[in-house]
Structure formats: C-alpha cells, structure tokens
Protein 1
Amino acid sequence: VSPTPAAQTIVSGGNARTFTNYQLDASQSGEDVRLSSMKGELTFNTAGTANYLTGCVLKDGGNILNSTAVNPATADLTTTEYTFTFDSPLTVPKGSVKTLALVCNVSTSAVSPNTFSWGVINTAANIVPTGVVSGTTIVETVTASVGQTMSIGNGTIVVAKDSSSPIYAIAAGGTTGQV
C-alpha cells in the first residue's frame, strides 16, 4: 500500500475519490506477471457505515480494471474484505512497478466522524500472480499495510472578487474577450 494519497478529510458526496494506491512491484521478476483479481480490506470506524461507499473500482491510470464495481455493504463488523475481479487479466511487466488506484463514490449521507481506510493485503493468498509465459504461480512478498485514513468532514467554499476585476464596464454586444 502506497503512502499516497495522504490521510485527509474528505467531503461527503464526492465521486471517484482515491482512497489508496497499491504498488505491484515486478522489478525483481524474471518474467511478466499476470493477475486476475485482488482482495482489499476496508476498515471503518462505525459499524454499519461501509455502505456509505459505492462504485469502488481499481484503476490502472485511466483504465477501470473491474467494471463490476464493489459496493461495500452495511456490516456489523468494522473490517470487511472485498474481492476486485478484473474484466481482463492485468499484466505487470518484469522490471517495473505498477500502481493501481482504488477509488469509490462517497454518499451524501456520510457524516463526521466516519472514517474509512482501504488497504491491508494481509496474506499472499489475496493476490495470486502467475508468470505470463510459464503460467507458474509466483510466490510474492506481501507487505501488510493499512491504507491512510480518510475522514468525513464538512466542506466550505469561500468566493471573493479578485482585486483586478473592474468595478463597472460597458461592453458592446457580440464582442469577445471582455472581463
């Protein structure tokens, strides 16, 4: 689990919020690595609030890997594991590190002090990579980590007139470039 994005306060009602980034490191692999799914664990501070997150997907850059989004359900527990099944197998080229972003929509019903952390890939069984050429299951090293905590807070916006704005101006109809 990457240290970015940093823990922060987010406003309810946001779409495609990045909660965590996973780094898949094939820099020491002798061949390209393929995987078809990943499990991620969601930790939340108040039982029953997991359903405030919907449309959770893993993205490789701008490409969504799982078109069937994960929608965390209300749970009595405050930690739940979810499987992200990819539409097509993902290949991590040997000698490279690929970063996947986990993004979710946040319900307008989510209120402070709700917190959410995606992360923890706590066992190697949560990712089952194989060699692209050999088809052999690759034994990987998993660094267990809880993602950063995203807290629900209140949002505000302040609007102020720029000091360079004109106080009053007359403009002819149909002209362009007028301030």
Protein 2
Amino acid sequence: MLIISLPAFSQRKTGIISPDGRIKFTFALTDSLPQYSVAFKKHTIIRPSALSLSFEKDGDFGKGIKITKVIFRKGTDDYSLVAGKAKKVRDQYNESIIPLQETSGHKRLVNLVVRVFNDGIAFRYEIPRQGSWSSYALTAENTTF
C-alpha cells in the first residue's frame, strides 16, 4: 500500500470575463495584499491594484486571507430609461462571488462580488452575517487603481 501526502491546494487566483469575451477581470492573492487587474481585448487597462478594508476594532482585512469556493453565474438586467437613445435596456453580465476568509485570528469572511458587463466592470464588498463577527465599524476602503 502506498500513501502519498499532498499539500492542500489553495486557490490563489481567479478571473471572470464579459459575456462577449472582450473584458477580463482577474483577482489574485499575493504575499502582501490581494490584487485585481482588468484587461480589454487582452490589453491591460488596470494594472494589478491592491484591495483591503480597515475596521475600527478588528484591524485591517486583506493580509493572511484565502479564497474559498468561488461562485459563478450569469444574469441579465432589464430596465427602462427616462431619456436616451433607447427606451428599454437589456444588460447582460457574468458575476463571480469570491469569498475571502482570514486564515487566522477572527477568521472573518468578506465576499468580493464582481460583475463584468460587455462595456465595463463593477465590484462590491459584502459582509455576510457570521457568529464570530457580530458588529463592525468600517473606517476605510483601501481599493486602488
């Protein structure tokens, strides 16, 4: 009998592209802070840029984190415009929910929710309810580009 011990695989990079394939959002964990970058038609338009959050009591969130199970989905927003060239808009996107969890300390969890459209990107932070972190005061959002 042969037993092989392999180190646990830890995902360090993920990405998502627009429905038409022209825009790519990439997220990566580095030794310092997590970073994102954006490319359009394979040309970098936002170089690797750091992301982190600062909280009043619990300190910074960004170093010493891991990516847990990433969720991908597609969606469409339909809405009407009051003014403009088109009265009705159909906006398709690809979405990725990137769960980021501290590997030590409070083991806080923050989701980075990314939407990539055919004409741009958007992302936001979500802080899900969690037993070890019942309240917080966000003092700084340290997203750069």
Protein 3
Amino acid sequence: TLFLYDANTDELWSRFASGLESTEIRIPAHQGIAGAVLDSGITESIADPYADSRFNQEIDIETGFRTRSILCAPIAAKNGKPIGVTQVLNKHDGEFTAKDETRLLAFTAQIAVSLQNAQLFEDVLNMKNYNESILRSTSNGMLTLNQEEQLVTANDAAKLILRLPDEGLTGMDAPSLFGQRNSWLLE
C-alpha cells in the first residue's frame, strides 16, 4: 500500500481497489503505524498488528481485509521531508526479514523519485498553462523567436496586429513575418 501525505488536510491517503470500484482511504497523518513511521522516519516491522496499540483496525473492518503482519517504510523527498509511507502486508512465510526491509527501502527510494518527477512535471505543466493564459489574455502583441530568428509562438494580439493567419506560423522566419513595412524591427 502506498500512503501519500496530504499537507493540506494533514492526512495520509491511499486508494483501495475492489473489483472495478475504487475507494479512497484517508487517515490522520500522525495516527496508526503508518503515522508513526511518517513521524519517525524509521522503518517498522510489526509481526502482530492487532497486538500493537497504534494499529487502526477500522480500515480492516471497512475493507474486509485481515492484516496479519506489516512492514512499513517512510518515503522522503530529496530534502528529507516525509512525503508518505509504503506498507507491505501479510508475508506468506512468517515474519518480515532484514532482506525484505532492504527490498522495500530500495523500492521506496524509486517511488520517491517517481513521485518527485510527477510533481515536477505537474509544476512545469501548471507554469506553462499559466504563461499561455497570460499570453492569450494580454492585448499586447507578443512573439517568441528562436536563435535562428524563426517564430516559436505568437499570441492572438500579435496575429491581429501583424495581420497573420491563425495556422502555419511556427517556423516562419523573421523577415517574412514582419515584412518590408516593419523592417525596423529586424534591426
């Protein structure tokens, strides 16, 4: 199970799938074994969760699952800040071993990198959308040219001012773009 930390609600959350249906599980971030691991940053192996006072049996009751053993590891960002926890449940052949812990920590490190890459992608996409929104909403003509003086982007105002068509502009060279009347721009 992958539990991610939601700083806005101070909760750990995960999705639980049963057949075609998906349910979101949310627990207070500092409760239960997952919360203890999130707070401490230390991996824990629990042979009998029902004997551990931190174990929240409500999730087992809600999902119909029976937890017999838990191996739980923290997920940390590059800066060391906790971003979630992973849990492996119900080992078939007895208790979790040091080898199991090593494997989970390696897997968790990959999860951390993937989560941070996904966040970076989302941040870049949000910034791109924000910039495009600004370009669309301004009444000033804005053009972007590359080093070869070819058009990369033009907002709607620039197309209107320069009387340019809506399509087929990308890659147009600056002299063709500005024409004879606007040769002063090329200088």
Protein 4
Amino acid sequence: MKNFKKISIIVVLMLMLSTLFTSCEKDKNINDSNENNQSEFILEQGASIQRDFIGVIKNQANVPISNATVNIGPKIGLTDAKGVFVIKGANVKELFAYIEVSKTGYLKGLKTIVPIQGVNNVSIILLTENMQALPLNNQIQLLNGVKVTFNGGFEDATGNVYTGAVNYSMNYIDPASPTIANEMPGMLLGKTTLDDFEMLQTYGMLHVNLTDATGNSLQIATGGSAEIRMPISSTLSGTAPATIPLWSFDEDTGYWVEEGSATKIGNEYVGAVSHFS
C-alpha cells in the first residue's frame, strides 16, 4: 500500500495529502560544518526539555479561530473563543519545538520555533481550504497568476489509477506578506540533497490538495507531473536568480527538504513536480 508522506513543496503542505509548493533559494548554512546530516541535526536540537506555550490562532481575516486542536509533542490543547490556547510542560528540544494546529475547513497549521525559558508566545494563521472541482483541462489558476497544469492522470492511496471526479484546493503564500511567518509551515530551515542544512529565502509558497468526491486523498499518477508557474513578486524581481531549488515541507521532521528546481522565465518561476504530498 502506498504511503502518502506528509510534505509540502516550497512553497507547501499540510494534511496527509496536501502540499505546499515553495520556491526558495539557499541563504546560508546554519553552521560551519560541511558534514551535516539528519542525525547530526537531531543531535544539534539539544536535549529534551519541558516548556510552556501560550498562543493565538486566527484566520487570514484576523478573526480568532475557536475549538482548534493544538499539538506540541504528546500535549494537546484547544483554543477558546478568542483563539487562545495554553499548553504547559510540553516536551520539546532545547533548540527545536514543533507545533501543529488542526481545524475542519482549514489547512493544518505547522510552526517550528526555538523555545525559550519562561512562556513561549506563538501566533499562527490558518489558511482556508476551499475545495472545488478540477476543470476538464486539468489546469487551475489563482487571481494572482499562479498556475498549475496537470500532465497525466491521478491515482489513489493504494497506487491504483483513479478516473473519477477530482476536487482540489490551492492556496498561495505571498513572500512579501507581513504575516508570512505566521502563515507558512515550519521556519525557513531546509535540508539539501547533500544533507546540508540551510537557511532559506522564499520566492513564494503554494499549497495544493487533491481529493476524490468523498474527500479521499489523490496524487499525481506515477509517471505524471504538474507544471507550476509562479509570478515573481515585484519586491524580489530585481534579485531573483535564473534558477532556484524547490523545497517540500516534511511534516514528520518539521523542516523543508530540497526537491527539484525552477527556472526564471520572464517574470515567472516555472518548475515541474511529480507529487503533491
């Protein structure tokens, strides 16, 4: 049985089969070592400790979201009418705390922080999940010009070819948004194909979620792909490089993973991906 891994592409994702397509470039290495790998990074997270958290969960209209479930390790909290949650004594790492927020009708909120002593204050903005039918031409587009074209078919979680109606939701996170830190998953930390860890700069993030008519997750069929065209923000166009790596967010680890690349064509970045989760 095929396991849909929880990842999002940088931009990207949040449920078991959603994805955030994110275009980022490397900024700098997080330390001086050229031999970083995942196990070393885990060690660098520090020892297990307990920390207290208080936070507020809102939507993009700045309206508090009540009854959202917040997970920090095994600890679970629930937001009140003002969107506020309190979790005390959560088990985290000295340098790495991973927070997950879920609420029906919204994409999962995922945030990574370096915890401090005392109370950690957290703000997370949940993006609305707007499911709609995939057009017959297999092309979807947002008002800002972001476009995704599916080339090939779709398959279900078992890897079987799916030929029924396809629903999708698509959300864009603007790199120029003043609230991007509260909207995006994790933080701008990514693991390269060489197992180095880098601090990243984003040129835009995109989440795409595919389901069948009853809400079961779908994926791009094996051998298929999706072309993604993302306009370059006017605030970044002057410094945008000719080619940038693409990154997907791994929900299991809480950081980004390098996957593929995008090329600058005119005022857009154009790239192709083989999956959205």
